[in-house]
Structures are given as structure tokens and as C-alpha cells.
Amino acid sequence: MPIKELKPTTPGQRGMTTQDFSGLTKAKAPKSLRQIKRRGNGRNNQGRITVRHKGGGSRKFYRLVNFNLPEGVQATVEQIEYDPNRSARIALIKEPSGQLHYILAANGLQPGQQVSSGQEVKIEAGNRLSLKDIPVGTTIHAVEMKLNGGAQMVRSAGTSAQLMGIDNGYAQIRLPSGEVRLVDQNCQASIGAVGNEQHQNIKIGKAGRKRHMGVRPTVRGVVMNAVDHPHGGGDGGRHGVGGGKNHGSAPKTPWGQKTLGYKTRRRKSTTKYIVRSRHESKRR
To answer: How does residue 243 score in pLDDT terms, banded at 50, 70 and 90?
Structure first.
């Protein structure tokens, strides 16, 4: 989708950009594939805020996207739709039996095209196959991490991964972060890159647009008092991270946990599947 610049008839529209939605279908999502989305505003089941800066925003329905399309599906793309819950576009596909599914819309997917899943389907955008049946070097997206677990990786707008090779029952996949990871060769992936590649070039333009998205204001720690944040305090004037007696210390969260250069990876059991870390290129 191309980027569309607005005529600055108001101060808030100066510098704001949006996307051209003319190629999308404006029909409502089928009732069978949508459900009411309850807003938790960043709170857990005890009512405590566990994710800050969330709340408000426009009402929206959640679209039930099928990330685990079964083998043998042969469907026709009915329409390409906007999904308020993700950056990517979604495609409504219909089987000859009348069964409807939502899938991630691959780049170049158009209404009327055929989408298939199985062992001997064509290597075309939107089709879904096992990694062992995909030629080496192919661009893929919506990759499974474990067998029959559904797509978990490479689902954001404009992203894609590349199948580097297959050896000893595992496929080597280069992810958008630069990490090369081993995945079971029987796991499935979709062909092509995720559509809506211009999403990263959108300029929000004004604070109110963020509030419509459910994002509340963020206050910098360095402008707080020392009692409120590890970055706060200081003897007047502007100061750097830490401030006062803590000036020059490592950046921290309001609860004192380091935020830069601090390893937060917990699932050490899956480290053996990482062939090349995404951090290796930064160390050179």
C-alpha cells in the first residue's frame, strides 16, 4: 500500500501520513470470524497495571486469523481487509465447501487468486507448505516454531524470512532480526513476504492519533523526582540518566531493572536451536 500525505488543513495534519486504503475491501468481517475484544488496559486479573501506557482507544472486533491452516485446503481469496489488531493485512479465503478462513495477506495477493496448502502445491505467494517441500532460498513468512503449533514467527507487516538449507531433519531459517534458527523440517510456512510493506513509513503526526490506538502518554524518568524513578533527581537544571548521586549509572526501569545491555532471555533450553545470534553482527 502506498503512503498518502495529507493536506495540512489543520496543525495536527502537518507532517502526518497515512496509507491508501483504496485497494482494500470495506465489507464487515463475517460474524463467524470475529469476536468482541475486551480491553484490559494493561491490567492483570487482580486489576494491577502490568503493562504501562495502555488504555482507551477505539472499539474494535478481534479477527480470528487461522495461523494453522490444515493440509489439503484449496480456497479462493475473496477480499483483502484491514485488521485493527495487527500491522499486516488479512485475506478472507473461501473453500468450495463454503468454509471461510482469515490468513495473513502475502505481498501481491489479490482477490480471485487461489491459495492452497499441502505437499505438492505451487511455490506461489500465499500458499502454505512444510519446510522440507520448499526450495532452498525461498522467501517465507508465518513460520511455525513447533509442529502443529501454528505460525509464531515472521507475522508483522513487510517482514520475511529465508530458508537457508535443510540438514538432519532441521531447516535453517534466517529471521528478519538476522538470527539463524533451526526449525523442524515438518513445520509449515507460507510463501512470500507479508504485505503492507510501507507500514513502517507511516508518520503518526499528532498525539491524539496515538490515543485512538490505545496508547497513553509516557513520561521520561529523568524529569521525575528521585523518589519516583531511578533516573530522577538532581540538583536543578537538566541532567542525564540517573541524575544526582546516580548520575552516569546504567539506565533502569522504575523498578530498578537494567534496560540496556541486560540479558532478559529466560528460555535457555531453546538456545541450542540458534545457529547464529542476532547480536553477532553488532560485535564486529
So the answer is: very low
State how far the Cα of 176 lies from the Cα of 173, in Å rounded to an integer.
10
CA distance linking residue 170 with residue 188, whole number of Å: 12
Give the end-to-end CA distance of the chain in Å, rounded to a whole number: 36
| Domain 3-200 part of CATH 2.40.50.140 | yes
Q: Which amino acid is at 197?
A: E
Q: Mind listing the pLDDT tens digit for each residue in 33-63?
A: 999 988 889 999 999 999 999 999 999 999 9
Please report, for the chain, the start and end positions of each structural domain, with discontinuous segments joined by +: 3-200, 219-284
pLDDT single digits (tens) 199-239: 999 999 999 999 999 999 999 888 888 899 888 887 777 76
What homologous superfamily does CATH list for 219-284? Ribosomal protein L2, domain 3 (4.10.950.10)
Question: Rounded to 5 degrees, what angle do the CA atoms 102, 77, 107 make?
Answer: 80
| Helices vs. strands in the chain: H and E counts, helices first | 2, 17
Query: Which residues are 115's β-sheet partners?
Result: 75
